[in-house]
Amino acid sequence: MTRSRELLVRVAVTVAVFGVLIGALSLSEQPFDFASVWAHRGQYFKGLGITLVATACAYVIGLTLGVFVALARLSRTLWIRHLGDLYVEIIRGTPVMVLLMLAYWGIAPLLGVDDKLLVGILTLGIFSAAYAGEILRAGIESIERGQFEAARSLGLSRRQTLRHVVLPQAFKRMIPPLTSELIALTKETSLLWIIGVFELTAAAKGTGAHTYAYLEAFLVAAGMYLCITIPLSFLARNLERRLGYEARMGVHL
Q1: What is the rounded distance in angstroms from the CA atom of residue 70 to the CA atom of residue 75?
Q2: Distances (CA, A) of 122 to 38, 92, 144, 198
Q3: How far is the C-alpha of 202 from the C-alpha of 191, rounded, in Å?
Q4: Is residue 28 helix, strand or coil?
Q5: What are phi and psi of 234, to 5 degrees?
Q6: Which of 29-38, 107-116, 150-159, 239-248 is predicted least confidently?
């Protein structure tokens, strides 16, 4: 199937699905009141902006810390490797909501930090680092062992081998899961309202409280989240296809 035909089929199916959903809602006896929700659109855009900022900052923190987590889990030193394992097990085994509450009510007062958004971003970044570290570790370990041995036989150090040989090959394998982590992190920012951060979900919650149109308020929030996550999915798919094509053509990135 050609690319243009595939795109046409995807668009047609998407339109059909949304048409059915809209038709089902229109036949419902629920009296929808989107006009009152539209009156609070400024709150939605404010919440969306904070959501995007929190997602971007937490993702950068997660990727940065994730590199160290991955290197720790790949370390030949037992105590360093165990610290990496312990970090991943504790963070991944604890719900992000619980981590946010512990960070805001327990750790932040001890450190004298009262910025709710900062606490939320740091907590989400630390949470994301456990998943990003596992993705990076799996990507590195997916490279054939012969690549390491060949690089070492040419006189490259372990760091040079990772930087110039392993990571460029592993990068395209990491793109889909790293994008999935970004999408998951975008949705996890919806929990920041628990510690008082005014993000997109908090905007929907506040709008529903003012208008009593909770269904409409959260339908709008869901649509705005989809406007973020769907393009990210398409971007990841296109990058994966492009990198795979260039690899087949012998282009080294």
Answers
A1: 9
A2: 32, 16, 35, 16
A3: 9
A4: coil
A5: -65, -40
A6: 239-248
End-to-end alpha carbon distance in the chain: 28
The reply to whether 29 falls in a domain is: no
The token pair at 49 is 């902006």
Residue 243: the pLDDT is: 65
113-157 pLDDT tens trace: 999 999 999 999 999 999 999 999 998 888 877 777 777 777 777
Structure tokens at 134: 């596992």
Cβ neighbours of 21 (radius 10 Å): 10
Q: Is residue 49 part of a domain?
A: yes
Tokens at residue 17, please? Answer: 């699905």
Q: Phi-psi category of 145—alpha, beta or left, where left has phi over 0 and alpha has psi -120 to 50?
A: alpha
Condensed to tens digits (0 to 9), the pLDDT of residues 41-80 reads 999 999 999 999 999 999 999 999 999 999 999 888 999 9
Place of tokens 């798919």: 237
Domain total in the chain: 1
Q: Distance of alpha carbon 140 from its chain centroid, rounded? A: 20
User: Are 183 and 233 in contact, with CB atoms under 8 Å apart?
Assistant: yes
Instruction: List the domain range (segments joined by +) for residue 61.
Output: 43-236
Q: From its phi and psi, is residue 75 left (phi > 0), alpha (psi between -120 and 50) or beta?
A: beta
pTM: predicted TM-score of the whole model, two decimal places: 0.85
Which residues are CB-neighbours of 132 under 8 A, at least 6 positions away? 62, 63, 65, 66, 69, 70, 178, 181
Q: Distance between CA 184 and CA 245 in Å, rounded?
A: 27
Rounded to whole angstroms, the Cα distance separating 215 from 200 reads 15
Phi, psi of 220, deg, nearest 5: -65, -45
What CATH number should be reported for the domain holding residue 55?
1.10.3720.10
